[in-house]
């Protein structure tokens, strides 16, 4: 059933797949991100209590959701790499890590900027905020562990183990709202049967989430290609690729 | 296999006993960090009682990090780790024994010191018992999870700071639950729920960490 996946463990095939996928990702990311942002920031109705300042939700919520999504993706590729000894999976993992760290930072920053007018403070030691901060630390730990090894093969494995250890943190992030439930509001869009967000606000939000996911996907594809090229410099196919582009 | 494990246990105990001054360092650090707090935030007994459990736990985490590198470093440097890995004894069991010995020699002294520190920070008796039970359940978890990161950073020259960077975020949930338990105890509330969660985390790490440590050692040994 999974046999079609096997060729992509070879870096050359993965590189070519990335090359084919990239334009689609770039186009769809551009469209959906622009639509989501303009709709959300300019046209969605303003909140009856929070006024226009609630509009930061169209950046805050997508980045918060995707910061965890990126970590899961990173951990899954680390798992694939460790279990099935796939080198490309480690490259995917380390290509994802900085993207996830940046998105986590955006979520924290926009959250702080939103918290100032709404809660009257930049930062509270609320469970959700704290676990998002821990998530950032986990990303930085994986990145710095990977960076401190000379041998990148070894680095991938070590960082992969660390990423999997950090995965314990993800359920804690998820359930922290129910466990400690302090200042941060509960989830409002995952209640699929009856969301507590009005549809005029929900749609731009969903499109923003999709848009940011696609943007991250496009960046990830490019970073994965770069990582493959950097690691496989000595391979003939990379060298012929370089000479071809030079001739153009 | 049992003979080999026993031999490793006896050897590590003997090694620890012969390096007593090195074992003393985390304990000294533990006491010093905790005596800095009353000096830093003022000697008001009520304040000290409020921050006490958290301070003791943070100091325990930091000083266990200090001694953590000793876990495999010497064996790695003199090559005996390689010999152990080549032997027929399953590496996860060896790792478990080594972590247990390390916990026994460098963490249990900290636990024995804790009544003194509870006095320093003006903890009440129920708070002290809660603190001790969270420490008893939580510190093996520190050692088990910490050993994974120690294994991963073995081959690096400057592992120390990186080790803290990797481990501190992972320990935060433990810190939260442990201090929540002591706080519940200070209000005369039951704290079995927090203990149960710490216990669950400990059991999960006991089941999984030996394999992760073994894998980490293999990665480092290449």
From TrEMBL, chain A:
<dbReference type="Pfam" id="PF01578">
    <property type="entry name" value="Cytochrom_C_asm"/>
</dbReference>
<dbReference type="InterPro" id="IPR003557">
    <property type="entry name" value="Cyt_c_biogenesis_CcmC"/>
</dbReference>
<dbReference type="GO" id="GO:0020037">
    <property type="term" value="F:heme binding"/>
</dbReference>
<comment type="similarity">
    <text>Belongs to the CcmC/CycZ/HelC family.</text>
</comment>
<dbReference type="GO" id="GO:0017004">
    <property type="term" value="P:cytochrome complex assembly"/>
</dbReference>
<keyword id="KW-0813">Transport</keyword>
<comment type="function">
    <text>Required for the export of heme to the periplasm for the biogenesis of c-type cytochromes.</text>
</comment>
<feature type="transmembrane region" description="Helical">
    <location>
        <begin position="133"/>
        <end position="149"/>
    </location>
</feature>
<dbReference type="GO" id="GO:0015232">
    <property type="term" value="F:heme transmembrane transporter activity"/>
</dbReference>
<protein>
    <recommendedName>
        <fullName>Heme exporter protein C</fullName>
    </recommendedName>
</protein>
<feature type="transmembrane region" description="Helical">
    <location>
        <begin position="201"/>
        <end position="221"/>
    </location>
</feature>
<feature type="transmembrane region" description="Helical">
    <location>
        <begin position="56"/>
        <end position="83"/>
    </location>
</feature>
<keyword id="KW-0812">Transmembrane</keyword>
<feature type="transmembrane region" description="Helical">
    <location>
        <begin position="161"/>
        <end position="181"/>
    </location>
</feature>
<feature type="transmembrane region" description="Helical">
    <location>
        <begin position="21"/>
        <end position="44"/>
    </location>
</feature>
<keyword id="KW-0201">Cytochrome c-type biogenesis</keyword>
<dbReference type="InterPro" id="IPR002541">
    <property type="entry name" value="Cyt_c_assembly"/>
</dbReference>
<keyword id="KW-1133">Transmembrane helix</keyword>
<keyword id="KW-0472">Membrane</keyword>
<feature type="domain" description="Cytochrome c assembly protein">
    <location>
        <begin position="20"/>
        <end position="184"/>
    </location>
</feature>
<feature type="transmembrane region" description="Helical">
    <location>
        <begin position="90"/>
        <end position="113"/>
    </location>
</feature>
<keyword id="KW-0997">Cell inner membrane</keyword>
TrEMBL record, chain B:
<keyword id="KW-1003">Cell membrane</keyword>
<keyword id="KW-0812">Transmembrane</keyword>
<dbReference type="GO" id="GO:0017004">
    <property type="term" value="P:cytochrome complex assembly"/>
</dbReference>
<dbReference type="GO" id="GO:0015232">
    <property type="term" value="F:heme transmembrane transporter activity"/>
</dbReference>
<keyword id="KW-0201">Cytochrome c-type biogenesis</keyword>
<comment type="function">
    <text>Required for the export of heme to the periplasm for the biogenesis of c-type cytochromes.</text>
</comment>
<comment type="similarity">
    <text>Belongs to the CcmB/CycW/HelB family.</text>
</comment>
<feature type="transmembrane region" description="Helical">
    <location>
        <begin position="93"/>
        <end position="121"/>
    </location>
</feature>
<feature type="transmembrane region" description="Helical">
    <location>
        <begin position="127"/>
        <end position="154"/>
    </location>
</feature>
<dbReference type="GO" id="GO:0005886">
    <property type="term" value="C:plasma membrane"/>
</dbReference>
<feature type="transmembrane region" description="Helical">
    <location>
        <begin position="21"/>
        <end position="42"/>
    </location>
</feature>
<dbReference type="InterPro" id="IPR003544">
    <property type="entry name" value="Cyt_c_biogenesis_CcmB"/>
</dbReference>
<feature type="transmembrane region" description="Helical">
    <location>
        <begin position="194"/>
        <end position="217"/>
    </location>
</feature>
<dbReference type="InterPro" id="IPR026031">
    <property type="entry name" value="Cyt_c_CcmB_bac"/>
</dbReference>
<keyword id="KW-0997">Cell inner membrane</keyword>
<keyword id="KW-0472">Membrane</keyword>
<dbReference type="GO" id="GO:1903607">
    <property type="term" value="P:cytochrome c biosynthetic process"/>
</dbReference>
<keyword id="KW-1133">Transmembrane helix</keyword>
<keyword id="KW-0813">Transport</keyword>
<dbReference type="Pfam" id="PF03379">
    <property type="entry name" value="CcmB"/>
</dbReference>
<feature type="transmembrane region" description="Helical">
    <location>
        <begin position="161"/>
        <end position="182"/>
    </location>
</feature>
<protein>
    <recommendedName>
        <fullName>Heme exporter protein B</fullName>
    </recommendedName>
</protein>
């Amino acid at each position: 059933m999974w046999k079609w996946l096997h060729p992509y463990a070879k870096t050359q095939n993965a590189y070519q797949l990335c090359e084919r996928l990239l334009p689609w990702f770039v186009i769809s990311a551009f469209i959906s991100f622009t639509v989501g942002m303009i709709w959300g920031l300019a046209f969605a109705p303003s909140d009856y209590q929070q006024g226009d300042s609630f509009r930061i939700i169209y950046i805050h919520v997508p980045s918060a959701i995707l910061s965890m999504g990126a970590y899961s993706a990173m951990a899954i590729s680390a798992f694939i790499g460790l279990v099935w000894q796939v080198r490309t999976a480690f490259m995917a993992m380390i290509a994802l890590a900085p993207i996830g760290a940046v998105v986590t930072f955006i979520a924290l920053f926009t959250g702080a900027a939103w918290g100032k007018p709404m809660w009257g403070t930049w930062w509270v030691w609320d469970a959700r905020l704290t676990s998002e901060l821990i998530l950032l630390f986990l990303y930085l730990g994986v990145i710095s562990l990977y960076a401190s090894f000379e041998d990148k093969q070894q680095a991938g494995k070590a960082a992969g183990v660390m990423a999997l250890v950090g995965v314990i943190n993800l359920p804690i992030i998820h359930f922290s709202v129910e466990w400690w439930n302090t200042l941060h509001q509960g989830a409002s869009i995952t209640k699929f049967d009856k969301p507590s967000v009005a549809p005029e606000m929900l749609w731009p939000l969903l499109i923003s989430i999709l848009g940011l996911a696609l943007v991250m996907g496009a960046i990830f594809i490019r970073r994965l290609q770069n990582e493959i090229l950097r690691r496989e410099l000595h391979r003939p196919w990379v060298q012929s690729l370089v000479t071809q582009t030079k001739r153009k | 296999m049992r003979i080999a494990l026993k031999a490793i246990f006896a050897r590590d105990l003997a090694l620890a006993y012969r390096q007593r001054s090195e074992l003393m360092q985390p304990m000294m650090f533990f006491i010093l960090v905790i005596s800095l707090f009353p000096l830093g935030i003022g000697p008001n007994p009520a304040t000290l009682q409020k921050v006490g459990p958290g301070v003791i736990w943070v100091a325990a985490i930091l000083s266990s990090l200090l001694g953590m590198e000793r876990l495999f470093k010497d064996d790695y440097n003199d090559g005996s780790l390689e010999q152990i890995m080549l032997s027929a004894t399953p590496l996860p069991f060896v790792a478990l024994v080594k972590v247990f010995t390390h916990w026994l020699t460098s963490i249990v002294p900290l636990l024995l010191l804790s009544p003194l520190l509870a006095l320093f920070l003006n903890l009440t008796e129920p708070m002290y018992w809660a603190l001790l039970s969270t420490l008893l359940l939580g510190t093996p978890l520190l050692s088990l999870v910490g050993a994974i990161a120690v294994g991963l950073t073995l081959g690096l020259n400057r592992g120390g700071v990186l080790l803290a960077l990797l481990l501190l975020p992972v320990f935060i949930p433990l810190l939260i639950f442990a201090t929540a338990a002591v706080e519940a105890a200070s209000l005369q509330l039951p704290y079995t729920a927090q203990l149960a969660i710490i216990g669950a985390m400990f059991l999960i790490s006991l089941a999984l960490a030996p394999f992760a440590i073994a894998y980490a050692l293999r990665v480092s040994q290449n």
